[in-house]
């Protein structure tokens, strides 16, 4: 009789464990599906700028910022009428040689002989905040500028929507830039990246966790 009861208990325990396992798999699948959909929409809505210094020396880091400023100043002069990510990518592709020319001349003018590489592609980015907008880590389309050995600290910003000149001290993104983001993502996705919606922090952390895993796998 005791053996029969133990047998029944073992069966029930196995069923319970199986149920918990299936529930875990289902939850994981739902979370992955959510993260994949949200991340894709957010990544498809923005185009970023990535500038990498030659090294972490003070001189090389200062040079990185000068190159950045000159690149952004040129970008502002040619992108006033740009209304979509596709347009800005096409515009940069059309003027890619000019971007490289500006970066290289800036390097020479400041007394350095580093070569420079300028390319458009998909690159890994960490989680980054621009005022009251935060973008989760992930693989984003970007204009990448590599100075010299490109072994120094990076500088990131968003070229579209234009967030490169956001005043981080005030912590506020211009309404015009927010409107562009809203037009390209769902209401929930905008709430996810906007600090106006504190109730979305948990979901942002989930997206961030999965995306960090994806970025690490992509870099292997």
Total count of strands: 6
Content-based structural category: alpha+beta
Give the N-to-C terminal Cα separation. Answer: 57 Å
Give the amount of beta strand, in percent: 15-25%
Order of helices and strands: HEHHHEEEEEHHH
pLDDT below 50 for ≥5 consecutive residues: which ranges?
none
- How is the largest sheet built, in terms of strand order? 2-5-1-6
Contiguous helical run count: 7
Instruction: Summarize the main sheet.
Output: 4 strands, mixed
Total domain count: 1
Instruction: Give the helix level as a range of percent.
Output: 55-70%
**What sort of overall outline do the alpha carbons produce when their principal axes are compared?**
elongated
Features:
7 helices; elongated; two-stranded antiparallel sheet; single chain; four-stranded mixed sheet; alpha+beta; 220 residues; 18% strand
Task: Please write out the topology.
Elements: H1 2-45, E1 47-52, H2 58-78, H3 85-94, H4 96-109, E2 116-125, E3 128-130, E4 133-135, E5 138-147, E6 154-160, H5 175-184, H6 187-193, H7 201-218
Parallel strand pairs: 1-5
Antiparallel strand pairs: 1-6, 2-5, 3-4
Helix pairs in contact: 1-7, 2-4
